[in-house]
Design goal:
Length: 306
């Protein structure tokens, strides 16, 4: 369900009935980009069926999916076309366009080329856990996740107010302590991938991939001032992920013990598409809503206002 995720806290909300929520989402249904439209975003059915609901409830967990389509003209193509147009104007007027005139000419070039650009689509799963008070956005990109949250707030109503999850101890500070002390927090193990970066203008970076991190060399880098920006962890032997200094969860993976315990291998071939979707959502949300409180506790708890 999620490969990457950013988590937001529900600071205030009066949830509408699911039927009303469906109507709200329908007003923002996805429509593909027009010929000269650079971007379009809207809601699609989480089940992947065009006729299915836009708002799904599985075991009390609400699931949505935002589709974003973009069309971009390669910069090299724009540059060549712009140069040709500028050359033609220089020949015609005796002077080369500059400043505002050049910017307007570039906009016209991009607008003319957009109908020939190939669209790219990305789908962001969104999971709203009203009982726990969190919203999960399936993206590792903060700008893209914030854009999805803005659309969610506009559509869901009920005075919805969301804030990016922040903890009392910064992820970078906590990861540095775990590596320096060679000890993971309770319930977690440190895996074999890590990135350390010097917080100065040079940004000197050291990366470890598939390498044991229980070594003096790593602790030495931390003593010299490098800060962890990414660290691979496993929670309770059930979920592996990479924690970043921005509190993003990347490369989320449910491990075999979870999948085998749920009987997914034995039943997936026989299950209908709808049954498989429900099972996958129940499995993912069931594990992640247990992982998150443990991670928050390991990071000193939720940061309180002020």
């Amino acid at each position: 369900m999620f490969k990457n995720a950013l988590v937001y806290r529900i600071e205030h909300w009066q949830p509408p009935p699911l039927a009303e929520l469906e109507e709200r989402l329908a007003r923002g249904r996805f429509v593909a980009c027009g010929a000269t439209q650079p971007e379009s975003a809207g809601w699609v059915a989480p089940r992947g069926n065009a006729n299915a609901a836009l708002a799904e409830s599985v075991g009390g967990q609400w699931v949505f999916k935002l589709c974003v389509e973009t069309k971009a003209v390669p910069g090299s193509v724009v540059k060549l076309e712009l140069q040709a147009k500028a050359d033609a104007l220089e020949q015609e007027l005796g002077r080369r366009p500059k400043g505002k005139q050049l910017r307007e000419l570039k906009e016209a070039v991009v607008h003319a080329l957009l109908p020939r650009a190939f669209p790219k689509r990305a789908e962001l799963p969104i999971w709203l856990d009203a009982a726990a008070g969190f919203v999960w956005v399936g993206s590792g990109n903060a700008k893209r996740a914030d854009a999805a949250v803005t659309r969610l707030i506009e559509l869901l109503g009920g005075g919805l107010k969301l804030g990016l999850l922040q903890t009392a101890v910064s992820p970078a500070g906590a990861m540095a302590a775990w590596l320096a002390e060679k000890e993971a927090p309770p319930g977690f193990t440190i895996d074999r991938d890590c990135e350390l970066k010097q917080p100065d203008s040079e940004k000197a970076t050291v990366r470890y991939a598939r390498h044991t991190l229980d070594i003096d060399e790593v602790a030495q880098h931390i003593r010299e001032g490098k800060r962890p920006t990414q660290l691979a962890l496993t929670w309770n032997g059930r979920v592996s992920f990479v924690l970043t200094d921005a509190l993003t969860l990347k490369k989320i993976e449910l491990l075999d013990v979870v999948l085998e315990g749920a009987g997914r291998d034995a039943t997936s071939a026989q299950a209908s598409a709808d049954d498989a979707f429900d099972a996958d959502v129940a499995l993912a949300t069931g594990e992640l809503r247990q992982l998150l409180p443990a991670l928050i506790e390991a990071l000193g708890g939720v940061q309180q206002p002020g």
